[in-house]
């Protein structure tokens, strides 16, 4: 079994009498240490898949496994633990706590787990050692996103989930963030799942999952991913 | 456009129900509390006043030591604007002799008259219709009397009820309440029994025998129109009181003079009467002497008459005896005649009986014969029928025979033919011819011939013809045989008929014989009857002759008897006359003797009467002064205290509600600010579209105005009923009032609603003003979240270092939202302060009870005796009785006087005891704060703290003027100031009193106390009181415990008010906390969602949010304690009345409970919010970035 296995995941929303399928029997697999990109136009259900995968949302039907565990059978409380110990989340709008410094934002996360990378160390790694005591409002967008990545990585998650991490950033900063993610994947053997509507970045992934209208249309395994630096868009 | 804005506002309300209702709620609570408390005191007064007015409570009650005469009433009626209602009252014991419960019995006037005597509030039953019916009061002091029960009124050794009342037993027909006694526990004082009245009775006034009225109720229309507790009322009341006292002064003297004059007149009259009587009596004696002489002559005449009478009687007796003899003879003759008549009658009766018997038999015979008649008729008919049948049969037989005879020639002819056939040949034609011949010859008729002819037409064989013949022959023979048998039957029948006829004729003859016999019998019978009636008429003639004879006899006999009776009566009369004569004679002799005795007695009696008159004359000269007492409503038990309670509530109402207003304003401000903040994009869009500031703000104005106006309307509507209602009902536990009067004060409502709306609109303006100043472009962008920054505390590294991570976060959050922090602290502080104030007031008031009655007053009770010195009262008796009950006693002179210091006047009691030792037994004289005990010296007085404050902050060494006499004040020096809560006292020693007043101490009461740790039971108290009251000069007995009991009832009422405060404070705290927490959470929803994504458990998330709220709550509570303590001091000073000092301490438990109650409210809010937090949808929350 693969590191991540999704088996016919369906997510339905009920709006009065109408039932909307956000995910319609989505199935795919991702291997450990892979950099996977879920790509599709907006409304194609890619974020919903990511949320289910990250334990923020639950599927209406279907199973999925992470590292051999059937996460889809988890209770509410087990899902919280799953998020706490196994998942690192990165959002488009960073979602840092504005009232806490960069370091404190990371500490807020690490204080909940037993095994973590100290805040200073991880900030150094993302190149923000000297901005440690700045509040989010004092940081640029790219810096904020790096703090967010650092916050996610500090917990040593099994899985890094990124939801349009470059959506709010300019080209160069976005590229830098993608590079940081790709490097982390390669160096730490971290499994990264990235959701984007920008198909131009697909060549950098080990595996591309194309979604359209709530369904998986195509899964491409890329034997020779392109380094981010060589990608232009 | 306006319309769009209105629509916009309404849809906003729909979308944000919670927010709308939080403004609505806080405004409703705020205005409800504000208006409700403000209206409570006026409503209390109105409730009482309307009860007074409805029941025509008197404004004044006059009582006089000599009652009121008609003249007094006339004088009173001369005062303008007053209605005077004279009536009666008396105090008696309830139940049979020996009872110690006292009833005050009032006279009931004509119903329908508007006065307190007749307009009682019936709670049960009806008004009396008969003289011996009564109404009892519905109070709780004496229970157990049901409608229909009889109630007995009795006196004791000192007075007799039947002197004042016609009836002493009354049937209870109704129960009433009266505003004269709104207190549930007091019915006033009396001088009999235990000294206090237990119940009131109303009886028809015809029952009162008293000559003069014993009381006068006075009402005044002008006063009725005023509120009883108003200054206006009291002013006019005092004015009228003065007038009444003026009249009293005049009438007191006049009346005394009148009484004296009256009495003098009476004495003069009595003397005249006596003289007249004397003359009369002596004249009578002389008269009697004359009469006796005449009587003597009459006696002598009588003797002669008697002798004559005796002779007359003797003659008539002889005549009567003769008549009797004649009558007896007549009687014997009559009896003989009667016997003869009787015999004759018997014979006649016998004859008649026999005749009747014969008649019966005859009737019977006749009936039998008549019965037989139809039988005979029937027999005859049967016979005739039988004859007719027989004749018929004969006729048939004859016919049959004729037929047979007709057939016979044919048969014979046929036979001959057949014979011929057998012998000779067959010739058809011959035969036919033969037949024709035979027909022609008449041997054969045509029929037979036609029958035969075909036989011989040649078609038939001989054998066939022969057979045919045989048949015909047989037929004929059979017919013949039949005829013969019929004939023989007929002959038999005929024989029978003849036999029957013979029998019938025999019977007929018998019947006719019988009939003739009966007829003969009847003839004989009628002869007999005629004879009988002859005899009978003879008998009646004889009888009537006999009767006449007898009537004549009876008449004569009656005549005889009446003669005899007359004789006997005559005899009796004679004997009576004889007796009378003898008696008369005897009487005459006695009369002579009595006359002599009478003469002597009259002499003695007149001498005595003269002496008595002389004595009365002397007494009149010594008559004491008359005194009128003018009582007002304020003298009715409970009246004044009720007014004071209302005042207390009104003082509370002045202070409390401002808190609510302030907090409501803060809550509205936060809520509206949040609302405006949330909609900045929308506002920006509108601005960009070119809407003016006013148009934009209209929506919020409408929103806020609707919320606040509806909240204020609901709040005032509910508050104006709820708060006064609860408060009046709470006081209803002590005071008996009727219908609650709680009108909606429209002016108050209008002002409150308007103020609430304006207040909220102001907050709207405040909330909007900042945002409206910004540029649209700025507004279209989301408001930058408040940037984090270092707080002051962080710069103090020594503290910051020691904080844990989460503590740091909390601290930073606290200071991030300063306004909210401030709001929360203020809200919570207000809540705690209110709760603390509530408990604090309770503590202060209950301290009066606890400290005054347990720590300061040490006596058990006091016996007050007549003011006028020891000579009148049985002080020895009082002391002995008390010592017999193991009670220690102290002589005290206690009396209320006006005191003055620093230009200020007030009333205070002076309390004089022999020395310090005696004082220590009655009162614990000490300092409130240090507890130091003070000693009474002979150098000055000790006064209580409140009195010192009232008179402008007196201190040791100051002096105070006491108006022991009205004109000349006595100056006294203060040596110490002591703790005391109820009433004002000047404690001084006997020696100091005598020194400054220069008079002996006129002791007027005995304080008594049990040994340490002992208490008298209620029964023991009552028993002792009623024994004390029997002693000479006793005025009243009062017990400390009874007073304390009344007081603790008042505390219960107050507790209700406090609960009301606490509940309101709780509602306030809840709304404030809920609202602020809600805003807090909504503002930080992304933050919270992020925490959840990061894997914070539910509890951890809640703790992260609540830690700061909890901290703020604690902070707020602390601030509230300080605030509450200050507020309490202020309130206590405001609501305190002059005569009482409230406790100045707040108990530790009250502090603790106030904080705990606040925390409980906070925890409840958090529990609710925890659920809310748990249900936050992370995905949704993180998605919503504008």
Distance between the termini of chain B: 27 Å
Overall, the morphology of chain A is globular
Largest beta-sheet details of chain B: 6 strands, mixed, barrel
**Biggest interface between chains:** A-B, 33 and 30 residues
Mean pLDDT of chain A: 87
Number of domains of chain A: 1
Q: How much of the polypeptide of chain B forms β-strand, as a percent range?
A: 5-15%
Our count of helices of chain B gives: 29
Distance between the termini of chain A: 35 Å
Kindly name the structural category of chain B. Answer: alpha+beta
Strand content of chain A: 25-35%
What assembly state would you assign to the polypeptide chains in this entry? Answer: heterodimer
Architecture per CATH nomenclature, i.e. the level-2 architecture of the largest domain in chain B: Orthogonal Bundle
Radius of gyration of chain B: 67 Å
Give the ordered list of helices and strands of chain A.
EEEHEEHEHHHEHEEE
Taking strands numbered 1, 2, ... along the chain, how are they ordered across the largest sheet of chain A? 6-7-8-3-9-10
Q: What spatial order of strands do you see in the largest sheet of chain B?
A: 3-4-9-6-8-7
Structural class of chain A: alpha/beta
Main attributes of the structure:
heterodimer, A: 233 residues, alpha/beta, Rossmann fold, 6-stranded mixed sheet, 4-stranded antiparallel sheet, 6 helices, globular, B: 1186 residues, alpha+beta, Helix Hairpins, 4 domains, 6-stranded mixed beta barrel, 6-stranded mixed β-barrel, 67% helix
Protein described:
Chain A contains six helices and ten strands; from the N terminus they run βββαββαβαααβαβββ. With 233 residues, chain A is α/β, with parallel strands linked by helices. Chain A has a single domain (4-230), classed as Rossmann fold, CATH 3.40.50. In chain A, a hairpin with a 2-residue loop joins β9 and β10 (215-221). In chain A, α3 (102-110) runs parallel beside α5 (141-154), α4 (119-125) crosses α5 and α5 (141-154) runs parallel beside α6 (171-188). Chain A starts with a strand and ends in a 12-residue tail after the last strand. The model of chain A has no long low-confidence stretch (mean pLDDT 87). Chain B is an alpha+beta fold. Chain B folds into four domains: 1-51 and 656-783, no CATH class; 56-225, no CATH class; 259-620, Helix Hairpins, CATH 1.10.287; 855-1038, no CATH class. In chain B, 32% of the residues are buried. Chain A binds chain B through residues 51, 54, 56-57, 77, 80-85, 87, 89, 91, 93, 95-101, 104, 107-109, 111-112, 135-138, 151, and chain B through 784-789, 805-806, 808-809, 812-813, 816, 1086-1087, 1089-1098, 1100, 1178-1179, 1182, 1185.
């Amino acid at each position: 079994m693969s590191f991540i296995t999704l088996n016919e995941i369906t997510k339905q929303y009920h709006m009065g009498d109408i039932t909307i399928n956000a995910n319609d029997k989505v199935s795919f697999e991702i291997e450990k240490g892979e950099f996977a990109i879920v790509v599709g136009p907006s409304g194609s259900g890619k974020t919903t898949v990511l949320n289910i995968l990250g334990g923020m949302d639950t599927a209406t039907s279907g199973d999925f496994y992470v590292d051999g565990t059937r996460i889809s059978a988890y209770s509410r409380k087990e899902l919280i633990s799953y998020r706490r110990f196994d998942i690192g989340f990165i959002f488009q709008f960073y979602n840092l706590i504005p009232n806490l410094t960069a370091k404190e934002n990371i500490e807020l996360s690490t204080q909940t787990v037993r095994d973590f990378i100290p805040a200073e160390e991880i900030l150094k790694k993302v190149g923000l050692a000297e901005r440690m005591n700045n509040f989010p409002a004092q940081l640029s967008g790219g810096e904020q996103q790096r703090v967010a990545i650092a916050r996610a990585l500090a917990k040593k998650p099994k899985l890094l989930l990124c939801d349009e991490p470059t959506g709010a950033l300019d080209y160069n900063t976005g590229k830098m963030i993608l590079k940081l993610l790709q490097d982390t994947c390669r160096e730490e053997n971290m499994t990264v799942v990235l959701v984007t509507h920008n198909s131009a970045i697909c060549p950098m992934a080990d595996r591309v999952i194309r979604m359209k209208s709530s369904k998986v249309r195509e899964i491409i395994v890329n034997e020779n991913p392109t380094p981010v630096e060589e990608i232009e868009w | 456009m306006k319309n769009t804005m209105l629509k916009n506002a309404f849809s906003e309300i729909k979308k944000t129900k919670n927010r709308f209702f939080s403004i609505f709620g806080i405004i409703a609570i705020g205005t409800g509390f504000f208006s409700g408390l403000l209206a409570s005191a006026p409503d209390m007064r109105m409730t009482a006043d309307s009860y007074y007015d409805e029941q025509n409570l008197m404004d004044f009650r006059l009582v006089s030591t000599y009652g009121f005469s008609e003249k007094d009433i006339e004088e009173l009626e001369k005062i303008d604007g007053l209605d005077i209602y004279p009536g009666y009252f008396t105090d008696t014991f309830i139940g049979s002799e020996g009872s110690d419960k006292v009833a005050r019995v009032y006279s009931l006037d004509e119903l329908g008259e508007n006065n307190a005597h007749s307009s009682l509030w019936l709670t049960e039953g009806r008004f009396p219709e008969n003289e011996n019916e009564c109404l009892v009061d519905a109070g709780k002091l004496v229970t157990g009397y049901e409608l229909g029960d009889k109630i007995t009124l009795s006196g004791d050794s000192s007075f007799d009820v039947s002197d004042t009342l016609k009836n002493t037993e009354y049937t209870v027909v109704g129960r009433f309440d009266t505003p004269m006694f709104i207190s549930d526990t007091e019915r006033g004082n009396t001088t009999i029994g235990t000294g206090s009245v237990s119940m009131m009775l109303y009886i028809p006034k015809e029952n009162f025998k008293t000559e003069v009225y014993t009381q006068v109720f006075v009402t005044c229309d002008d006063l009725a129109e005023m509120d009883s507790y108003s200054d206006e009322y009291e002013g006019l009341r005092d004015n009228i009181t003065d007038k009444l006292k003026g009249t009293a002064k005049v009438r007191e003297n006049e009346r005394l003079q009148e009484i004296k004059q009256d009495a003098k007149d009476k004495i003069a009259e009595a003397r005249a009467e006596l003289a007249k009587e004397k003359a009369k009596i002596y004249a009578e004696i002389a008269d009697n002497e004359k009469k006796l002489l005449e009587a003597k002559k009459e006696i002598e005449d009588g003797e002669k008459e008697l002798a004559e009478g005796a002779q007359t009687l003797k003659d008539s007796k002889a005549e009567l005896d003769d008549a009797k003899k004649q009558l007896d003879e007549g009687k014997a003759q009559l009896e003989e005649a009667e016997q003869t008549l009787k015999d004759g009658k018997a014979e006649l009766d016998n004859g008649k009986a026999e005749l009747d018997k014969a008649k019966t038999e005859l009737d019977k015979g006749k009936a039998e014969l008549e019965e037989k008649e139809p039988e005979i008729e029937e027999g005859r008919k049967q016979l005739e029928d039988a004859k007719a049948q027989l004749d018929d049969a004969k006729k048939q037989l004859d016919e049959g025979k004729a037929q047979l005879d007709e057939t016979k020639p044919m048969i014979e002819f046929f036979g001959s033919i057949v014979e011929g056939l057998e012998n000779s040949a067959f010739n058809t034609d011959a035969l036919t011819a033969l037949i024709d011949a035979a027909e022609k010859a008449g041997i054969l008729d045509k029929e037979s011939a036609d029958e035969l002819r075909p036989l011989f037409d040649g078609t038939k064989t001989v054998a066939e013809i022969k057979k045919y013949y045989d048949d015909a022959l047989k037929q004929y023979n059979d017919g013949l045989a039949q005829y013969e048998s019929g004939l023989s039957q007929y002959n038999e029948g005929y024989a029978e008929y003849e036999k029957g006829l013979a029998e019938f004729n025999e019977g007929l003859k018998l019947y006719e014989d019988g009939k003739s016999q009966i007829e003969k019998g009847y003839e004989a019978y009628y002869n007999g009857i005629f004879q009988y009636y002859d005899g009978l008429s003879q008998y009646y003639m004889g009888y009537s002759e006999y009767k006449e004879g007898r009537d004549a006899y009876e008449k004569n006999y009656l005549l005889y008897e009446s003669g005899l009776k007359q004789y006997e009566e005559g005899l009796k009369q004679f004997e009576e006359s004889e007796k009378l004569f003898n008696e008369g004679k005897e009487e005459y002799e006695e009369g002579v003797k009595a006359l002599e005795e009478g003469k002597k007695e009259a002499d003695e009696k007149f001498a005595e009467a003269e002496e008595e008159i002389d004595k009365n004359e002397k007494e009149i000269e010594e008559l004491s002064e008359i005194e009128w007492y003018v009582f007002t409503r304020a003298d009715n038990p409970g009246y004044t205290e009720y007014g004071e309670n209302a005042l207390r509530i009104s003082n509370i109402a002045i202070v409390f509600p401002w808190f609510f207003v302030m907090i409501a304003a803060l809550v509205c401000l936060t809520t509206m600010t949040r609302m405006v903040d949330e909609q900045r994009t929308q506002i920006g869009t509108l601005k960009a579209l070119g809407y003016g500031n006013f148009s934009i703000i209209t929506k919020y104005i409408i929103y806020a105005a609707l919320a606040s106006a509806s909240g204020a309307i609901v709040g005032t509507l509910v508050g104006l009923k709820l708060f006064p209602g609860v408060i009046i009902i709470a006081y209803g536990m002590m005071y008996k009032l009727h219908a609650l009067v709680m009108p909606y004060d429209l002016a108050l409502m209008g002002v409150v609603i308007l103020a609430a709306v304006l207040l909220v609109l102001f907050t709207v303006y405040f909330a909007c003003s900042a945002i409206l100043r910004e540029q649209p472009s700025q507004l279209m962008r989301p408001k930058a979240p408040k940037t984090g920054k270092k707080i002051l505390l962080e710069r103090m590294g020594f503290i910051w270092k020691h904080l844990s991570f989460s503590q740091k976060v909390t601290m930073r959050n606290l200071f991030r939202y300063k306004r909210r922090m401030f709001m929360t602290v203020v809200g919570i502080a207000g809540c705690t302060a209110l709760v603390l104030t509530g408990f604090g007031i309770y503590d202060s008031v209950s301290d009066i009870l606890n400290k005054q009655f347990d720590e300061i007053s040490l006596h058990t009770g006091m016996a007050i005796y007549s003011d006028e010195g020891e000579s009148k009262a049985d002080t020895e008796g009082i002391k002995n009785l008390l010592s017999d009950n193991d009670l220690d006693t102290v002589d005290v002179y206690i009396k209320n006087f006006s005191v003055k210091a620093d230009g200020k006047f007030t009333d205070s009691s002076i309390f004089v005891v022999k020395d310090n030792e005696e004082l220590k037994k009655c009162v614990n004289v000490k300092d409130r704060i240090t507890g130091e005990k003070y000693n009474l010296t002979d150098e000055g007085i000790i006064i209580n703290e409140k009195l010192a404050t009232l008179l402008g902050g007196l201190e040791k060494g100051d002096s105070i003027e006491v108006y022991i006499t009205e004109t000349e004040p006595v100056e006294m020096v203060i040596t110490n100031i002591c703790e005391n809560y109820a009433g004002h006292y000047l404690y001084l020693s006997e020696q100091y009193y005598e020194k400054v007043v220069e008079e002996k101490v006129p002791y007027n009461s005995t304080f008594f106390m049990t040994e340490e740790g002992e208490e008298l039971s209620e029964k023991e108290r009552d028993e002792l009181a009623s024994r004390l009251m029997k002693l000479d000069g006793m005025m009243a007995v009062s017990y400390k415990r009874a007073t304390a009991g009344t007081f603790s009832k008042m505390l219960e009422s107050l507790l209700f008010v406090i609960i009301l405060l606490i509940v309101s404070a709780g509602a306030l705290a809840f709304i404030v906390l809920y609202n602020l927490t809600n805003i807090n959470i909504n503002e930080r929803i992304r933050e919270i969602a992020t925490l959840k994504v990061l894997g914070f458990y539910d509890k951890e998330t809640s703790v992260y949010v609540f830690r700061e709220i909890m901290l703020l709550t604690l902070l707020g509570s602390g601030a509230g304690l300080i605030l509450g303590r200050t507020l309490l001091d202020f309130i206590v000073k405001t609501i305190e009345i002059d005569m009482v000092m409230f406790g100045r301490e707040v108990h530790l438990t009250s502090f603790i409970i106030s904080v705990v109650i606040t925390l409980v409210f906070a925890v409840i809010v958090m529990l609710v919010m925890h659920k809310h937090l748990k249900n936050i949808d992370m995905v949704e929350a993180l998605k919503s970035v504008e």
